[in-house]
Write a structure and sequence with these properties.
Layout: H1 7-15, H2 17-20, E1 24-27, E2 30-33, E3 38-47, E4 51-60, E5 67-77, E6 80-86, E7 103-105, E8 114-116, H3 127-137
Antiparallel strand pairs: 1-3, 2-3, 3-4, 4-5, 5-6, 6-7, 7-8
């Protein structure tokens, strides 16, 4: 079931992440309600392997199910930014068209080097995908 069915369900989903992912050591994620139908999710998830996931989401629940209006996710290790995802459109970059506007910024020129991000969505939670990606990549990171 998609926890974006309601603000309360998504909030419960966010606060229960550490129970579902044993690699989470600590979470400071906070849902900040902006009225009955809007919220901002902000904070960090500390995972094993000295990995930190910084999370920012703007959410709307004016329709059912709700949706993520915009997001930014940064993955850090030992104080070094490894890569990030954001939903800022790059309409003039045809290489990103397959997942527009979802994309991932990666080295070597992390600010300008983007690749498609097929695992991200506005209509499904993104954190499970991100945590699983970090867990899978942890041996290489």
């Amino acid at each position: 079931m998609n926890p974006l069915q309601s603000l309360a369900e998504y909030e419960q989903f966010i606060y229960s992440l550490p129970q579902h992912y044993p690699t989470i050591d600590h979470s400071t994620l906070v849902m900040i309600r902006r009225g009955d139908t809007r919220a901002v999710l902000s904070g960090e998830v500390e995972l094993r392997y000295d990995i930190r996931l910084v999370v920012r989401e703007r959410l709307s629940f004016s329709d059912v199910p709700g949706h993520i209006q915009s997001y930014g996710y940064e993955i850090w290790r030992a104080g070094q930014l490894l890569y990030w995802y954001d939903s800022q459109p790059h309409p003039n970059d045809s290489s990103l068209a397959s997942t527009h506007p979802h994309h991932k910024h990666i080295p070597p020129d992390i600010k300008h080097h983007c690749v498609p991000a097929p695992g991200l969505s506005f209509t499904e939670p993104n954190l499970p995908f991100l945590i699983q990606e970090i867990e899978s990549d942890s041996a290489r990171l």
